[in-house]
């Protein structure tokens, strides 16, 4: 509302309500726009910060080479190895794998000594492997007068025979109960070397065995021989029980392609 004095008269004017309202709403509109702009700015700033944090970070690889002193202490079996660094100390205890499967019995040591003595170390193995392995054995081995050659198997067979004779000739120990087969073998051996008893018995034990086990002998029986009672197969079987191979040789041997299995070999007797 405004007052005006003109020509001694006072005039009072009331402004219209519509005009006043128009001037009052303008600041509100400006405030709203400013608020929207501020919110939009904050949102865009937030999105920008998020996208910036998502960007990949590429780091240059760095290689560090560190050299530290190592101290190794070795003792006897079991082996103790101590590795010492400025920051780490590790103790490892192991048993040598080589000694686990190493045979140190008297028999193994004797066999190893025999093999070593057979080697000729003066021979280059890449040039003459046979003489390198067997050279010393060939030089030291003598051929018997009653043989045309000598080989390891013959020597082992003779050694085995001598060992068996020593075992059968020895008196049984009172502290050990021997098997029945060992007792019978010792008695058989003693009867074979008892020449006095053999001379006294004569040929009667042999003739009794031929007649009872082998069906008799036509030369000795003469006219009383009955051919119908003779069976060649049964005779060969009976002779085989006494380790006599008449026509065929039957032995058990190791399979040449598989050392864990055994074969029965049947061949023609040549000796």
Characteristic key phrases:
10 helices, single chain, alpha+beta, 271 residues, two-stranded antiparallel sheet, 6 strands, elongated
State the shape: elongated
Mean pLDDT, nearest integer? 76
The gyration radius over C-alpha positions equals 58 Å
Strand composition percent: 5-15%
Straight-line distance between termini: 159 Å
Number of strands: 6
Strand order of the largest sheet: 1-2
What does this structure look like?
- The structure is a single chain.
- The protein has helices spanning 17-54, 97-100, 106-118, 129-140, 152-169, 180-192, 195-201, 204-213, 218-221, 232-241; strands spanning 2-6, 9-13, 79-84, 89-94, 248-254, 262-268.
- The protein starts with a strand and ends with a strand.
- The model is unreliable at 5-12, 15-24 and 55-83 (pLDDT under 50).
- With 271 residues, the protein is α+β, with helices and mostly antiparallel strands.
- The longest helix has 38 residues, at 17-54.
- Strands 1-2 form a two-stranded antiparallel ribbon. The chain has a two-stranded antiparallel ribbon with strand order 3-4.
- The radius of gyration is 58 Å and the shape is elongated.
- It contains ten helices and six strands, in the order ββαββαααααααααββ.
Overview in brief:
This protein is 48% helix and 13% strand. It has helices at residues 17-54, 97-100, 106-118, 129-140, 152-169, 180-192, 195-201, 204-213, 218-221, 232-241, and strands at residues 2-6, 9-13, 79-84, 89-94, 248-254, 262-268.
